[in-house]
Design goal:
Elements (H helix, E strand, L loop, with lengths): L1 E2 L2 E2 H32 L6 H19 L3 H22 L9 H23 L15 E3 L4 E3 H23 L1 H11 L1 H6 L4 H23 L11 H14 L4 H21 L7 H12 L10
Helix pairs in contact: 1-5, 1-8, 1-9, 1-10, 2-3, 2-4, 2-8, 3-8, 5-6, 9-10, 9-11
Length: about 290
Amino acid sequence: MDIFGIPLPAMLSQLLLGLVNGAFYAMLSLGLAVIFGLLNVINFAHGALFMLGAVLAWMGMNYFELNYWVMLVLSPLVVALLGVVIERTMLRWIYKLDHIYGLLLTLGITLVIEGIFRSIYGVSGLPYSTPELLSGATDLGFMILPNYRAWVVVASLAVCFATWFLIEKTKLGAYLRAGTENPKLVEAFGVNVPLMVTLTYGFGVALAAFAGVLAAPVIQISPLMGQNLIIIVFAVVVIGGMGSIMGSILTGLGLGVIEGLTKVFYPEASSTVVFFIMVIVLMLRPAGLFGREK
């Protein structure tokens, strides 16, 4: 069976690849949206911390014989701890300054982190094998579904929507949102707002590290792997609306699928279609698809 002259299995394979890429876009843009929406910081270091999550998973496997499942938990925790240190020692001093200061500071952090690991491991890829439990593929009749790629999509969606529920539908999320708008009032209720802000940044970068561990068996690990995604992820955040949690999730998944379909029908445009969509959205709705107009 063909669709517009494209065999159905080939079409579905590209859709799956687009959905996997979209899952990474959603996870990374979600972390950016959490940090910007609640801390008002443009975290350019997000790509480097995504890379750090993957490299830590590789280090855990090769140096300490820690398997994928252990590092899927441990790596985000380590990166979250690093995020806490970054927030407490550097970011906390620039919250009241213009956004450009946060962008420049996190860009500097990116260059430091990438430079350290590039000097140790170079720029060649580091292999990371698929966990045995998720190896192989499942024959669905109309296509062959790689088990690990299916896991990436399911795990990413679960974490994304759990994060959305936490921030938008719980008392803790209400405190987080209120703390960014009126910290003095929230502190009057006995809430430690500076600690809450610190933990929020740690949580945001932990999402990037979690995505990095998920990506390790799919994308060859490299100290520069974050650079290949972060520009697209920033475009996703702009299209969805800066600070919009649900906008980041839905836009990331949607753009991943669109990118996958573009590779089928017009491969030459696959690397630019996201930015083309961004230009159109900014012309028609500067606040983004799900952002709030001021």
